[in-house]
Design goal:
Blueprint lengths: L5 H13 L2 H8 L3 H15 L4 E3 L4 E3 L1 H30 L2 E5 L7 H10 L7 E5 L5 H6 L5 E6 L8 E8 L1 E6 L22 E2 L11 E2 L2 H9 L5 E4 L10 E5 L6 E7 L6 H13 L7
Parallel strand pairs: 3-4, 3-5, 8-9
Antiparallel strand pairs: 1-2, 5-12, 6-12, 7-10, 7-11
Length: 283
């Protein structure tokens, strides 16, 4: 156990400078009995008497004088260290992870809105094709991420919905359903769906892929189809067709951060996100 905590040193210095427990307690905004007990605990732990007390006066002992001489610079050093940490934090860029092409045109709007905040920082965009973007946020590797729900696990994150969109079937251009105005999930029974890398519990038995860039060539060759948020295949890749699947339900793009992240820059980013949120069907 440390012989002296910063809080206790601050208490001692206040009493040493005031030479009055009542005034020191008022300055520290704590109760006088609590201050007196704290100082006695310090004296017991150090094995010295810091103050000579009478019913009318408080004076520093030699041990008290020595502690005051070294205690003031120690408190100043702690305050300087805290300031340096805050300044370093304020100058560090925010890290935002997203799927390549997975922002539905929101990224520039979000960054523009965030830049209007007085203490906005630089934002480093990290493109990450795999399904681990939410984990990157939880582990503190990035500060925020744009995520697709319900496909990505946002459990344990604070999220704000930015965009809601329909899902479409991505089919080969010569597929029998390619010219349909819309289809149902039942129409796709028997088709080969890909397995998305890093996502357990999938029922699909098709090729394993990591992102849309790997999917598109397989669709062109007729080796897989998929049902995806429309923005991931806009514009429609050459050699494919995208047909609405109304009963697949909508998907959302959300921004996620760690719960309780109270850093001013992160709060500002989330406020900017809230200001640009788009309802379903907004281009």
């Amino acid at each position: 156990m440390d012989l002296l905590e910063v809080r206790e040193l601050r208490y001692f210095v206040a009493v040493a400078e005031e030479l009055h427990f009542g005034r020191a307690a008022e300055r520290l905004r704590i109760a006088q009995p609590a201050l007196s007990k704290a100082v006695r605990r310090v004296e017991e732990r150090l094995g010295v008497q810091l103050f000579a007390r009478t019913s009318r006066s408080v004076a520093l002992t030699a041990a008290g004088e020595a502690l005051l001489e070294h205690g003031r610079p120690a408190l100043n050093a702690v305050a300087a260290a805290a300031r340096a940490a805050r300044q370093a934090e304020e100058s560090t860029p925010l890290r935002l992870a997203l799927k390549p092409g997975g922002d539905a045109g929101l990224l520039s709007v979000l960054l523009g809105a965030y830049a209007d905040y007085p203490k906005a920082r630089q934002v480093d965009v990290m493109f990450h094709p795999g399904p681990e973007r939410a984990a990157l946020v939880r582990d503190g590797i990035v500060d925020a991420a744009l995520l697709y729900t319900p496909f990505e696990d946002t459990l344990g994150l604070t999220t704000i919905e930015l965009h809601v969109e329909a899902r479409v079937a991505v089919l080969p251009a010569d597929h029998p359903l390619a010219a349909s105005s819309s289809i149902s999930r039942a129409d796709l029974e028997g088709e080969t769906f890909p397995r998305w890398r890093g996502q357990p519990g999938q029922r699909a038995h098709g090729p394993e892929i990591a992102d849309v860039a790997e999917l598109v060539p397989l669709v062109r060759l007729g080796r897989a189809v998929a049902v995806l948020p429309r923005s991931l295949v806009t514009p429609v890749p050459q050699g494919t067709a995208c047909v609405p699947v109304p009963d697949a339900g909508p998907s959302s793009i959300v921004i996620g951060t760690r719960p309780g992240d109270r850093r001013e820059a992160v709060r500002a980013l989330m406020e900017a996100a809230r200001s640009i949120g788009r309802p379903a069907g907004t281009p």
